[in-house]
Amino acid sequence: MADRRGVPLAAFSTAANVNEGTVLARLVDAIPPLRQPRGRPGRPRRRPKKLHADKAYASGANRALLRRRHSAPRIARPGVESSQRPRSARYRWVVERDFAWLHRNRRLLVRYERYPELHDAFLDLGCALICWRFLQRPALR
Asked: Which end of the chain is more exposed for a tag (fewer CB within 10 A), N or C?
């Protein structure tokens, strides 16, 4: 899961035969609390206001789960082509770009590790490198 700019918020790996739509609750719960500016009243937001996802997450249970967690689901609908609704894919490409950045590391592209802990460590390292690259960018004015 990434924010609008592509900074990874949460990541974990599953087995190859697990449907990604079934682990949405675990992924949303893995997001750390977002920091707020000093002096802003109230508790920090725990989850994003909107969540953009592809058709793999399109189920009534996932939509209800996101609404219970006060996140608006922006999930592509099955049977609706992206050419008919171009707005639905406006933000999802950011996550695909993050996958491409992660796959620049060969150990994440092809899983050579036998132990899942080692693979998760390389996944965390890849996400940390993406965050570091964002911090190295000059600020947009």
From this structure: C
